[in-house]
Amino acid sequence: MFHVFQHQPLRLITQNSLSSMCLKLMLSRPVAFAQIWKSWFSSHSLLGKKNIILMGPPGAGKTTTGRIVGQKLDCPVIDIDDDVLETTWNMSVSEKLQDVGYEEFLEEEGKALLKFSASGSVISLSGSNPMHAAGMQHIKKNGIVVYLDVPTAVIMSRLKSKQMDRIVGLSPGISLKDILQFRKQFYKRWFDIRVLCAGDVAPEVVAEKVLDAVKRYQESELETFISTRSSRSGRSTEEDSNKLYFSDVVIQGLALDGGLFVPERGLPKFTAEEWQGLIEATYIERAQVILERCIHPADIPASKLAEIIETAYGENFSCSKVAPVRHLAGNQFLLELFHGPTASFKDFALQLVPHLFAYCIPRSCNYLILVATSGDTGSAVLDGFSRLHDTDKQRIALVNFFPEDGVSPIQKSQMIGCQKENAWSVGVKSDFDFCQTAIKQIFTNSDFTGFLTVEYGTALAAANSINWARLLPQIVYHASAYLDLVHQGIISFGSPVDICIPTGNFGNMLAAFYAKMMGIPIRKCICASNENNVLTEFIRTGVYDLRGRKLISSFSPAVDILKSSNLERYLHLIANEDGQLVTQLFNQLENQGHFQLQKDLLGKLQQDLVAGWCSDEDCLAAIHSVYSTTGYILDTHTAVAKVVADRLQDRTCPIIISSTAHYSKFAPAILRALRIAEINQNPLSQLHLLSSYSALPPIHWGLLETLKKTGNGDHQVCAADMSVLMSHIETLIQNHFM
Q1: Known catalytic membership, residue 96
Q2: CA 158 to CA 175: how far, in whole Å?
Q3: Do 132 and 107 touch, CB atoms closer than 8 A?
Q4: How far apart are CA 505 and CA 207, in angstroms?
Q5: With 0-12 CB in 10 A as exposed, 13-18 as middle and 19+ as buried, what is 74?
Q6: Could you tell me if 663 and 547 are in contact, meaning their C-beta atoms sit under 8 angstroms apart?
Q7: Mean pLDDT of each 10-residue bin along the chain, 738 residues long
Q8: Which member of 72, 346, 563, 642 is catalytic?
Q9: Which residue numbers delimit the Threonine synthase N-terminal domain (predicted)?
Q10: Which residues pair with 526 in a beta bridge?
Q11: What domains can you pick out in the chain, each with its CATH number?
């Protein structure tokens, strides 16, 4: 068996003699001692007995990078091709490949890997090693596998210039590009950490990125979360000892002090080169790269995360691009976010989050998810949790509260039609703000939550946009939209864009701002409100004032919101994470119905955000105008954003308008906008009438199927009373879990 162990002569020295030597060296040559100690300590703290295993396609720079990493850590470097395979076979790799052929070569290569053992080394795999499962399982047992992810176009250029002739699988009729694409599935299966190596990045830079990535992998305890209402300076020893990680906040949803969770160290940053390396990537590939940086592998390993992302976006979306960007007119582009199963942007989070949640929760407890919706979240969360594995459905249930008379008929039909054995909809005789506030109060009612845990072995969790995991998938589509414009040649990377979003609870807008923080060149985030324009007034004046305000029912019900929950996360950010100030502001809002930002914070806010609002009349006029000139039908929320974008954009750069829902969900308003005199009240008939227009985009497939199945489905309705809601929750737990 081929053995290589870390060469550490100091291990052979007795403790006393080592101490004596260190003391003499420290006194006589303090600088030399410091350098030696730093090298020894960094190597041992980073590696220990583990190996750093570099994996990637041929031409990724594994050998060169490995040597540099080994030098920095002062540890052995092993190149599998040169030091193992050619030594074992006593011939070159290319000769072996010619001698035995493709399939036999992979088997012989795998056997050599199975006989190999090392400790505390940097190992550079061959490009084909990952294709042998047993060999990779063996070598991964004692190592951290680092995937050097280089764009295919860059690899092809490198291999062409080197005239490499030993690519396993290369033969007449099979292109190099096909081989590289085929191998990606194996790389994705085995890696622990991904390092993006876009363009012609110097090997020294790649080596530093490898070391940073390995350090992050080993320091999972640093990626903690805090509440927007906690103060860094005022945190107790108990709070510091009870650290919360990604898996914790996915489960807990809302902080115990009523605040929202945010990452203590902020969001990861991507370099311009890293973003450019994703221009050619698919939506699913972009999602995996971005989410890997936001979710530590100690919470969800990269291979499991990849599986979850593929499940969420692989077959459940009707468009292969998942979130395509379509030119509308002039410098305006639509980000179509309605190709998921329930026809709204909520599908992006809620096809993903249920699987994250199921992975993170302990197996010893049942969970009831509480959701409040102003429309689109309801059907999306019901559909998402209904797609869990049967074993997960037995321990995870969901109840969706929505304003009984505050959603469109089709939205209500969807929520009724999406009910499953573990998911129910409850109409509340009030508005969305009551539903959302009620859920927050239930979560912070320790007597009630404690009773459910003790009596029924059931814990509560949230899947609203207040849950941190809901925001991450939204960051992905904002970043992807920008990269698509670059890919289409509309802009070059680095050129700014504006983004306009119909905004209610501020989650979608916050995700766009987060994408900007992570390196996407977004210039202005434009908030578009309907007549419930509290948020618009706040952005313009710094005064958040609910006194005397009553919710107005509009044609864009998903933004019929007066209390924007995710605004709290944004204010926490621009206030330099001053939890005490955030607590003061939102306590004042709760108790007095208003608060006012300090002048300096308002200045910061207005550097990032611009806002406007649109009446129902202008919304319908925009739908008619766009259809008349382009043949494209906007939904009512997208029309609100279109009107505001027309008013506020300065036309010096492209503007991406988030099309947050399919127009089919709001058929009565759309038919009215299209000047249809008589409108049948049956939702299915309305969709059939809309389909006769042969407009773009076509009628949503999933929505049509759901309505066909709904018929006269039933749901529960309750009064706007906290005790009644809690009674409903207890009854549902009894019926499902007991």
Answers
A1: no
A2: 15
A3: yes
A4: 42
A5: middle
A6: no
A7: 34 34 42 42 64 96 96 96 95 90 92 95 96 96 96 88 70 83 93 90 95 95 95 56 90 89 96 94 97 97 96 93 97 97 94 95 89 83 92 93 87 87 92 88 92 93 86 98 98 98 95 98 97 97 96 91 94 96 96 97 97 98 97 97 97 96 93 88 86 88 78 81 94 90
A8: 346
A9: 235-313
A10: 500, 610
A11: 51-219 (3.40.50.300), 225-231+242-737 (3.40.50.1100)
Per-residue DSSP letters for 723-735? HHHHHHHHHHHHH
Cα–Cα distance between 249 and 226 in angstroms, integer? Answer: 9
Token pair, residue 171, equals 């033969």
Angstrom distance (rounded) from CA 684 to CA 96: 66
CB atoms under 10 Å from CB of 715, counted, come to: 16
Q: 381 and 502 in contact (C-beta within 8 Å)?
A: no
Longest Cα–Cα distance of the chain, Å, equals 97
Residue whose pair of structure tokens reads 């191998």 in the numeric block: 183
d(CA 158, CA 457): 58
**Dihedral over alpha carbons 707, 708, 712, 715 (to 10 degrees):** -40
Residue type, 289: V
The whole-angstrom separation of Cα 180 and Cα 183 is 5
Q: Please report where in the chains the tokens 């999602």 appear, as a residue.
A: 287
Positive or negative, the Cα torsion across 484, 486, 491, 493? positive
Smallest CA-to-CA distance from 641 within 671, 602, 610, 669 is with 610
| Cα gap 670→695, rounded to integer Å | 12
Query: How many Cβ atoms are within 10 Å of 504's Cβ, its own excluded?
Result: 31
Give the closest residue to 107 by CA, choosing from 140, 84, 131: 131
DSSP three-state, residue 235: coil
Establish whether the linkage from the previous residue to 557 is cis, with ω within 30° of 0: no
DSSP H or E stretch at residue 501: strand 497-502
